[in-house]
Amino acid sequence: MQQVRPRKSPKNAMCPHPKIFTTDLTEDVHSFQWNKKV
Question: Could you tell me the superkingdom of the organism this chain comes from (predicted)?
Fold first, then answer.
């Protein structure tokens, strides 16, 4: 159950991690962590 979200999503902006990482893998990890948080 992996939700693929757009690169620039409001939830991503809320992510505490800096925007230095722009790789798909990092974005996926952040999204996964965010989903786990919620």
Answer: Bacteria
Contact indicator for 16, 10 with CB cutoff of 8 Å: no
Burial environment of residue 27 by CB neighbours within 10 A (0 to 12, 13 to 18, 19 or more): buried
The two three-digit tokens of residue 23, written as one number: 């790789």
Residue type, 31: S
Place of tokens 């962590």: 33
Answering whether pTM is above 0.85, one says no
